[in-house]
Amino acid sequence: MVRTVLLLGAESEVAERLAQAADELDIRLHVATHRALYRNYGDALRNRLAGVVFTDFRIPLHALEQLTEHCVQGGVGGVGVSWKFLSPLGALLASRLGLPGHDPAVAPATRNKWLMAEAFRERGVPHPRTLAVPAPDAGIPAGSAAGLGYPLVVKPAESDGSVGVLPVDSPDDLAGTVRMAQRRRKSLPYGAPVDTTVLVQQHVEGASCGVVTAVHQGRFTHLAILRNYTTTGRFREDTGRTMPAGFGLPTEALILSTVESGLAALGLRDGVAHSDLRVTEAGPTVIAVDVGPPDVPTMQAIELATGVNTAAVYLQTVLGECPGTRPRRTDAAAIRFISTVRHGVFRGLEGLAQSPHVALVRSYVQPGDLIGSAHRKYTRLGHVIVQAPSPDLADQRADAAIAGISSRVEP
What we know:
alpha+beta; four-stranded parallel sheet; globular
């Protein structure tokens, strides 16, 4: 029986991972994208695609009609997304076709953090207290903001990951930070307009963790709990992740029940989600949920530690199939990101082969590339992943591996 999945967008390494998994599962993968973006696809990805449909994600209703026709004609049995901004369109398309998918009535909350905060509030999901500033000229009620306490976190309602997320230490800095967060008007890479609402959010202290969950017919199977590591200070940068997280069974049970309440509030029924949480003294708090597979380093770590292929699981869930989530091993894995604060011409990384425990290593930049941004303190150059029998040993090996790596950057 021929199985076909339409993937909305393929402008990421996640899409390449999905294409590889589709090959392994004998699934025909079609991609919907912009014609201009398709020109940048590499041969490795193009050769794995069974079909391409060109559309314009800037006009969602037109794209919905066009993609519906393509799915009917092409016998598509599942709809996936490689980028969370397309998740509402994916849910609408799957619903129209009668295919597995998330609740389209709630799907806008999977893209928009203000709608997500409201969905969490209505369903009693632990979440930081949040205010919305809908327009650049809208005033911020000083008393309301003060009620959240300082420091605060300011973030665009629609942004990818930590882009535009800024800390605020005092009332004097709040208005300027909100204006800075409202500068972004379009999403990359499709150029679709974004909601310029900005969130003013309570800062939550606590250990950071992520949970990757497979959802099949509304039932949850958790693939991993990862402990997140960051730099200290005002502008924090992810430095790594380790699984298992090692919080202890009672805490992890609370983490998973909190995640499930968040996923249910967002109407998730078939797919994969990645939840970001803080473990506070009062219990776990959901910061945000991203719909779709996590980033490639996280998928690699999960496969090294458990043998579960997250990309394959995602394709199976969007087809409505029972996913292959049973672990084949119970190891630990640790990711460490290679970053630099220097700006200039990248010349290379040294020390990559010094640790015998590195299972995977990846450089994101090539010699001769210009690196550094006026908007970010750190530039991420790559990552290493180690495998070990326990999370403590994985941490030790990963920290030793990253300590031996240096970058050469010329001003």
